Amino acid sequence: MQVDEAPEDEETRATYNFAPGYHGLVYRADVPPSGAGGSHNEHNSERQGDEERIDKNVDNVEDPKFKLQAMKWGLIPFWTKRNPDYGSMMKTINARDDSLAENRGMWTSMKKTKRCIVVAEGFYEWLKKNGGREKLPHFVKRKDGQLMLFAGLWDCVNYEDSEERNWTYTIITTDSNKQLNFLHDRMPVILENSSEAVRKWLDPKRTEWTLELRSLLKPFQGELECYQVSKDVGKVGNDSSSFVVPISSSENKNNIANFFANAKEPKRVEKDTSGEKHPASGPTKAEPIPQSVKTDDNRATVNAPRSEDNAPMPVAPDQKLGEKRSHDKSTPDSPPKKLQKVAKSSPTKSPVKNVSDKKLRSATSNNTGPAKSKGQNQKITNFFAK
Asked: b/e per residue, 186-207, with b = 16+ CB within 10 A?
């Protein structure tokens, strides 16, 4: 679309939480403050006088020019004498399409000569739940990613004892389309970019409200994208690009559900240069631990008929059990060796000592098992890693 004039960068700023009273971009025909092709009629203020007549001299409807202009959201009619309070301004942030049907009311002069386009990326709407006690913000934008062009009206006013011009605008609303019926019963009038509808709506030569202009105010027929966003957008003053990111999106870092979703993701498998697969991250599964017991010892074990404390001591190979070894006379000079007594078997049952408090010895082991490592709580995998 043709743009012959645009505001300086410091006059406007991008925001993700645009509230009433903020200054937004408005696209309109470059006509005087009184509107296209006329004056304020009976509402015209004499204090604009000569300055307005100068503006009329540059108004050329045969070769119209168009401009982008920063205006305040919340229309203030030209006949207003004092700056209204915030509550009064909130009443004029929107204009219903059905309120423009008749040629009466506050919108009469504006709908004829002060039509404009409000430029935005999208808009927010709140879904009411639990009888209106809970409100969930949703963001609506075009599915093709283009900017939205809202049909609007503008006006300019000079307050008493002030020479400053105050430019304000309102957005026209209509019935919701099928896509947004679940969300709200009203929606902004959205015009197609660079369409014939835009040219008709902004044409400064059309200074009468006609059925043709009124027919442009209808629900949007294109495809829209609508999704829930963060509740932080409901606080005026907050501003973040995350406000237009879906609450359920993986890009939304504030969504706690994404944290748990990431924990459930399967481990990725990567290949190294050798072609072997291994997990990309996380602990590795322990391999089977080899046994450290020798298997070449085939000696059988025998259960002793008595306790290990009463086990007989080993005897010489040439000596019978219960028989003393005779003195060797061939070695008279050697001192006699003291023999260790061997317990004889007795027909009477010898008293059995209480061995519950003593550690038993195995009949097949000499208590020389594999030495334990100094760290008793070390993992076995640490040992094989050495």
From this structure: ebbbbbeeeeebbebbbebebe
**How many Cα neighbours within 13 Å face the side chain of 287?**
7
Q: For 267-316, how does the pLDDT look when each residue is reduced to its tens digit (9 = 90+)?
A: 555 555 555 544 444 444 444 444 444 445 555 555 555 555 555 555 55
Separation of alpha carbons 380 and 233, rounded Å: 55
Question: Residue 31 contacts by C-beta under 8 Å, 6 or more apart in sequence?
Answer: 37, 59, 64, 113, 204
Q: How many C-beta atoms lie closer than 10 Å to residue 61's C-beta?
A: 14
**DSSP letter string over 205-234?**
T--S--HHHHTT-S---S-EEEEE--GGGG
Question: Which residues have C-beta within 8 Å of that of residue 61, sequence separation ≥ 6?
Answer: 36, 37, 204, 205
What is the spatial distance between Cα 118 and Cα 170, in angstroms, rounded to a whole number?
Answer: 9
Query: Which of the two residues, 373 and 99, has the higher pLDDT score?
Result: 99
Distances (CA, A) of 36 to 18, 25, 30, 261: 29, 19, 9, 58
Cα distance between residue 19 and residue 244, in whole Å: 15
Angstrom distances, CA of residue 166 to CA of 35, 170, 363: 14, 14, 108
3-state helix, strand, coil in the chain (%, to 5): 20, 20, 60
In sequence order, the 6+-apart residues with CB closer than 8 A to the CB of 238 are: 17, 232
DSSP-based three-state secondary structure for 244:
helix
Q: Strand pairing partners for 124?
A: 139
Q: Give the closest residue to 32 by CA, choosing from 8, 62, 65.
A: 65
**DSSP letter assigned to residue 361:** P
